[in-house]
């Protein structure tokens, strides 16, 4: 039939590389960009099928985030704006690995039948496509569009260069019937920023707030977009470096949130003149955010304010608003009042000191395996769920039920009262921070307002708690899938004996902790360790790595 003929014709333009096995990991498909065109083309077909199946807009993003500029990747944003349903991952893998057009078409036909996908029927579909600034993105975008367009009645809408979180946001909001241009995205952030600024109590700050913020854009899409966004933000004094413009350096090369967080050193473009200033760093596709500062002149290492500390700051802010709202005397007895559940979601990579700190404040802290999809899903179980990975990926999710409650509350409460202001702050925060996925741009703006609300310098924020010394190392192994973990990745099931060996090493140190897991995005096994001194933790990580390799 016609559909088959179209697919055969277009698939022949994108032959797969020989002898490469692709796998849809925690961040979609990633590889050296020169071998990706068939996979991206096929991901376009997949996205189109997903759109027909769900009757909704689906997103497709071309990026390899913090990885080398010569790498690229592709991932699908599902109709709700989050990661693609895990049920479709095996099909994604089969599609990417089909060795010829005939197999490919058979796979598509079988899956369409199994999933009742109405090819060429009454249903039409749409896929929204975005890419980061990688040079290979342009050709891969064409491959993706051809994939989408080879499914009858599905249109491909090319949004050009976007941050990953912008694309997720657009998919989520378009499927809620809203307008989703980049201007709409920027407006939503800047409007809720202004609302929050107006809700800051006057004259409470003990010291004048230093508005100056330096941002490392990783020479990627985030720096460029922040330049646009900051024009709408009065009161913030943002200076973007490593914007990716000519002569500023290469994408992710000794710059960016991944580099700063893992290596703990100053990114290029920052120097001794910046000692003591508040600095932030985005990753290559702007879905990660960390802060840092140079403690003193001449020191090479930085003081890192990682995702855990961003999480702690935001959790304090949210908790404070809930505390103001939960004023027993004034709390109405109306039927819509209910105990609001706040949940904090972390992974095993969270610094132990952050977990202790949050628990001491009485917060509920839960753990999931690494990977945004797990954290996001868990956070969505709460009225307000805050999740962050130590590497700076995270957001705050507000449930529909809670937001309805909040809106009713705001109507009900005395105008201008402290309680009404607390409710308004929560509502503004929910509009500011990306509800689809972790977003360094909206996250950065929220952090900036919260610091002002608290009246805190970056030094004060940093001193919330003292990080335990930690170390991460990668171990190259023949087959990383030989390492199998359980219990949110904190213990090893296989190979047998490895966990016992780790336990013996850990027991030698005070406050020792270590775990190993196979990476979902790189061909390595990762080792993470904590102990009470840097020297001890380096030794611990080293010995554990030797047990792995
Ligand atoms: P892997 O490679 O599975 O460790 C890395 C990050 C994750 C997550 C994904 C997706 C670490 C230790 N791991 O996953 O947290 O961000 O990339 O980009 O930072
Ligand atoms: Zn990223």
Automatic annotation (TrEMBL):
Q: Which GO terms describe its cellular component?
A: chloroplast; mitochondrion
* Cofactor: binding details: Binds 1 Mg(2+) ion per subunit.
Q: Where is substrate bound in this sequence?
A: 389-391, 517-521, 526
GO MF, one term, reads: phosphoacetylglucosamine mutase activity
Q: Which residues form the Phosphoacetylglucosamine mutase AMG1 domain?
A: 181-290, 306-456
Alpha-D-phosphohexomutase alpha/beta/alpha domain sequence ranges: 50-87, 93-175
Q: State if Magnesium is listed as a keyword.
A: yes
Provide the active-site residues from the annotation: 65
A Pfam family in this protein?
AMG1_III
- Keyword presence, Transferase: no
Q: Catalytic activity, per the record? A: N-acetyl-alpha-D-glucosamine 1-phosphate = N-acetyl-D-glucosamine 6-phosphate
Listed binding positions for Mg(2+) are: 65, 283, 285, 287
Q: Which residues form the Alpha-D-phosphohexomutase C-terminal domain?
A: 492-546
Q: In which pathway does it act?
A: Nucleotide-sugar biosynthesis; UDP-N-acetyl-alpha-D-glucosamine biosynthesis; N-acetyl-alpha-D-glucosamine 1-phosphate from alpha-D-glucosamine 6-phosphate (route I): step 2/2
Give one GO biological process term. Answer: carbohydrate metabolic process
Name the cofactor(s): Mg(2+)
Which PANTHER family does the protein's record reference?
Answer: PHOSPHOACETYLGLUCOSAMINE MUTASE (PTHR45955)
Family of the protein in this entry: Belongs to the phosphohexose mutase family.
The free-text function statement in the UniProt record for this protein reads: Interconverts GlcNAc-6-P and GlcNAc-1-P.
Q: What is this protein called?
A: Phosphoacetylglucosamine mutase
């Amino acid at each position: 039939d016609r559909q088959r003929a179209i697919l055969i014709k277009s698939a022949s333009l994108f032959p797969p590389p020989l002898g490469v096995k692709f796998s849809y990991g925690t961040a979609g498909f990633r590889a050296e960009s020169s071998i990706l065109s068939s996979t991206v083309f096929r991901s376009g077909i997949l996205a189109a099928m997903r759109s027909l199946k769900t009757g909704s807009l689906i997103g497709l993003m071309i990026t390899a985030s913090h990885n080398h500029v010569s790498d690229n990747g592709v991932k699908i944003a599902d109709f709700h704006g989050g990661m693609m349903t895990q049920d479709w991952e095996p099909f994604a893998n089969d599609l990417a690995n089909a060795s010829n057009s005939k197999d490919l078409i058979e796979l598509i036909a079988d899956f369409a039948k199994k999933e009742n996908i109405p090819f060429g029927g009454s249903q039409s579909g749409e896929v929204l496509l975005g890419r980061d600034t990688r040079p290979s993105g342009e050709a891969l975008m064409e491959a993706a569009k051809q994939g989408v367009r080879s499914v009858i009645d599905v249109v491909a809408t090319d949004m050009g260069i976007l941050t990953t979180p912008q694309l997720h946001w657009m998919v989520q909001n378009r499927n809620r019937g809203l307008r989703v241009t980049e201007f709409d995205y920027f407006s939503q952030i800047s409007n809720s920023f202004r609302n929050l600024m107006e809700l800051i109590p006057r004259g409470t700050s003990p010291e004048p707030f230093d508005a100056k913020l330096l941002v490392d854009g990783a020479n990627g899409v985030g720096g460029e977009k922040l330049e646009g966004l900051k024009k709408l933000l009065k009161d913030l004094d943002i200076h973007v470096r490593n914007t990716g413009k000519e002569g500023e350096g290469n994408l992710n090369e000794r710059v960016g949130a991944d580099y700063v967080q893992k290596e703990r050193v100053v990114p290029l473009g920052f120097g001794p003149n910046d000692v003591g200033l508040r600095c932030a760093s985005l990753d290559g596709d702007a879905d990660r955010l960390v802060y840092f500062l140079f403690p003193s002149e001449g020191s090479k290492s930085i003081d890192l304010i990682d995702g855990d500390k961003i999480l702690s700051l935001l959790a304090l802010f949210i908790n404070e608003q809930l505390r103001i709202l939960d004023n027993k005397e004034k709390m109405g007895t109306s039927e819509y009042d209910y105990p609001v559940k706040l949940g904090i979601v972390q992974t095993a990579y969270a610094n132990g000191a952050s977990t202790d700190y949050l628990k001491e404040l009485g917060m509920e802290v839960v753990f999931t395996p690494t990977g945004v999809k797990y954290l996001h899903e868990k956070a969505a179980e709460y009225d307000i769920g805050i999740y962050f990975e130590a590497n700076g990926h995270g957001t705050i999710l507000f449930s529909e039920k809670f937001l309805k409650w909040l809106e009713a509350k705001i109507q009900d409460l005395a105008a201008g009262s402290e309680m009404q202001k607390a409710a308004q702050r929560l509502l503004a925060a929910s509009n500011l921070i990306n509800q689809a996925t972790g977003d360094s741009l909206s996250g950065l703006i929220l952090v900036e307002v919260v610091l002002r609300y608290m009246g805190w310098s970056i030094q004060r924020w940093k001193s919330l708690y003292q990080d335990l010394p930690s170390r991460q190392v990668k171990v190259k192994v023949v087959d990383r899938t030989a390492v199998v973990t359980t219990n949110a990745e904190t213990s090893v099931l296989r190979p047998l004996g490895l966990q016992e060996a780790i336990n013996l090493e850990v027991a030698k140190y005070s406050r020792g902790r270590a775990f190993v897991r196979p990476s979902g995005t790189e061909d390595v096994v990762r080792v993470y360790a904590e102990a009470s001194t840097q020297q001890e933790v380096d030794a611990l990580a080293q010995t554990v790595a030797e047990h792995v390799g």
